[in-house]
Structures are given as structure tokens and as C-alpha cells.
Design a protein that fits this description.
heterodimer; A: TATA-Binding Protein; 5 strands; 22% strand; globular; B: alpha+beta; 5-stranded antiparallel β-sheet; 9% strand; elongated
Chain lengths: 161, 360
Amino acid sequence: MRPEKTFMRFRLILLASLISIVTSLNTGFAQNLLMIRVENPFPETMVALQAAIQAQGYTISRVQRVDVGLTKSGYQTDLYRIVFFGKADEIQKLSLKYPTLVPYLPLKIVIFAEGEDTLILANNMTNLDSFFRKRELRRYFRQWSHDTSRILERVATTAAD
Amino acid sequence: MRRININWAINVVSLLLGCVCSQSVFANNGTNIEKGLSLYQQHCFVCHDSEGRGGVGTPLSLSSFINSVDDHYLSQTIRLGRPGRVMPAFESLGTKNIGYLIDYMRSWTGIRPAAFPSDPVSGNTKNGQMLYQKHCANCHGKNGQGGQGTGVTFSRTRDLPIMAPALNNKGFLQAARDTLIEKTLTEGRQGTPMTSFTESGLTKKEIKDIVAFIRTFETTSEHKENQIKLASESPVIVRESSYDLDQTVENLKNSVIGHNLKLIRVQQLDQGFVPENSGNKKQIIVYSCGFNFLYEALKTDPRVGLFLPCRVTVVEHKGKVLVMSVNPKRMSALFNNNELDDMCNQMHDTYIDIIEEAIL
């Protein structure tokens, strides 16, 4: 086997396994949080994340620049942002019908630099199943969980390309 | 792919090709290592880095660590995790997969140390306690609870480049044999803040005393019970206001400031989704932040952004004005982090205070 070929294989393994991170977050504690590490610096990863959210059919309503607030207050920190997103019709409809869901809307993804890598994480909304015992909501939670996983998967794939 | 460390990649590659023959353990072991790599990428990479250099978790690939612990320690650590110290338990992976993971981790250096003897190390726990408080408590905590925060961070300054692990941890105590702890104290871990205590002048006997003392750390099931309690909390805090929506929002702003938080923004829930000046004016979010608290929380666990910034929501629903926030206690059950649990309790109480001040 030529070395380049072996490296290609590594890339494939890595890619395959990054994807499985998001599809197989079902061991013990891990399932509650959807979390990936991307071996790319923050700025590129942030662009990839925003594109992935949009590609999944969601609107980004705001990006909270946590690091800017901290730095202005004199605390030293690397880049740390929170991306809020959702679908207008879902947010309008569900917030009227289930007001106690509102504190969890819009959806959010946290993204921060860790050295030259970037970590991304999101709450798995199916965590709320046991509280909101409504079939309709559970369907949304499952959908959001699935979509969030797809978004992370897409970011991981972009980074591996 | 950016930044594949050539050294270990070549190491693994040659192992895959079966050409590192000096290590008989690895001969023809390529597929196991490959399976282990894939499992590592799925389950460990996110916290320990692709080359095991650490992150939310401690470094794993330093030779002073990986060459100084036996397979028993690794497999038990993976199986049991570190309850309350972020590291999840991977019991469900099963023995075979854990074996592959270890084969992969061994490929970082190509060395697999022999098992540590399981004989207990006996010593004077009283003297051990005294020595522990003098030499170890600074980093590992008075009760062995570990440093503030875990692992390595590249993102903000903390007391140490690698935070000292918890030693009073059930997962650690069950994984580490006395003889392994003894060796760790004797040799230290080069490249980390954990130095050799033989070099700093402790005698063999004194080290044994400390090991005996570490064994006395309580191993109650407190963490598990606490987790169950947290997980049964409601995910939202809800109160009804006796004022109308506008007045409630005004009260809330004052209440936030009165609690020494910085008011960041007041906005509609659907802002950013609908054109400006339209949308639902009866769903208002008040964002605020206590930067000092936020900073401490991030040092403790960089994942806390999931329930930050502080946010209180006011909604008019069927003639009632509801004031709500997420319940940090319920959120903290997702993180397997004792330190964070304490902070979340504090946040929970602050939310209640802020909300009640605004509605009464």
C-alpha cells in the first residue's frame, strides 16, 4: 500500500466515524448532548455551521458573541458564540400552543474554539420528552434532534473535505 | 485533512501493515487498531483530541501517562467513567470494543506495560493525610475533589495547564490499583504539573502512607442519587405575574440590574424570524449576564453555553402573564459534572429571586 493511499483510507475512516458520532450518540450520558470536535479553526467552522443550519431549512435569528461580552468586561477568552435558529412557522405555532416551551426556543447551537480545533454542541431536545407529554411535541423534538445531528454531521463532513 | 500528526499516523500505519515486529502484542493486530481508532473517533475524540492531547478531558497520549498505566486501569476507566467529573461511563461498549480502544491507544507509543500487582499498599493513613494536605491538596483539592474544571484548555487562563483529576472519585478509585497510584506518585507524569514526589524528597514509606490515605476517600453513591434528583426536576421555572406584560418586563429589567447582572437585550421571541415591528409582542425575552459568574462557569465546564446567557421569558397566554426560565438544575443533569451542579443550584436560586421580585 502506498503511503498516500493509506492516508486516504485514514481520511475515510475519520470521516465515517465523525458521521457516526452524530448518529450513534447513544452511550450513557453522551446522548443528552450532541457534541462534535472539528479539526478546523473557528472562523471556517462557523461559516460551515451557518451554511449547514440553512441547508437544513432553518433560519438563523441571531448570533450571540459571548466572547466579545466577556472580553469587554476584562475576561480573557477565546472565541465563543451561540447561534440561535429555528423555523418561523414552528416557533409561532408552538409558542402559542405550549407557552412553557418558550424558554427553550429558538433552538441553539454553541460553538467555541479549542486551540486550533472547534467544538460544537447542542442540547438533544428529546430530553424534554418526559416533561411535555404531548405526542405532537415529541414529534417535533425528534425532528429537531435529527436535524441538529444532520447539521453537525454536515459541518464535520465539510471539515474533512 | 489538516494536521494528522505524522508520527503517530506512521506509527499506526506501520502497525496496520504489521511491520513493527518488536512489539509482539501488536503483530497482526492491525484490524483491531483500526476498529479502535474508529471507536476512539466516535466516543473519545471530542473530549480528548484526535491525538490524545486532551481538551475537556486530560491528555492520554503522553508517554508518561500511557506507558505508566496498565490495561486494567484503562479498561476500568473507560467502563466506569468518572462519575461527576465529566468523563462518561462507556460500559455499554462491551469488553470487546473496549479492548479495541485500548489496542488503538497503545499504538500511540507501541508499548503495553505489564499489569500492576493487585496487592494492597499499606501505610499510615494519618501521616498520609498530613502529607496529602501539605503536598497534594493545592492541586487535587482538600477532599480529593480535583481542580476547578477538567482537562486542558487553550481558550482561557486557569490555575494549571492541566487540571488535576479528582482522586475521591469512584471511577478512579476502582480503576487504579494501589501499586499504580504508588508508581504515579513516585515517578510523576512528565510533561504535566504532576511531578515526581520521590524527586521532591518524599521517602518510599511516606508515599505508601499517602496511597493508604487516598484509599480512605469516601466512595459514596452521592453522585448517582444527586443525578436522579436533578433529572426529576422540571425543565422550566414558571411563575404567574400579578402585573400586566409591559409592567412585568419593566420590573424584570430592574430586578436583573438589582441582582448585579448586566442587562444585555430585551427582544421579542420571534425577532430575527419575522420582519421588524411585526410578530408577537406578547412574548418577550430579557437577556442578562453576570460576566464574572459566566467566566467561572466556563472555566468549570466550557459546555455551559448551552444554558447561557441568563434569560427570562415573559409571555401573555390566555389572559395570564407567565414569567419563565429554563431550570439550570435540570440542565446540569446532562453534564455529569459535580462542580457545575453547585453552580446550577446557585443559578436556579438567582432565577427564582429575579422572577419573584418582578412579579410580586
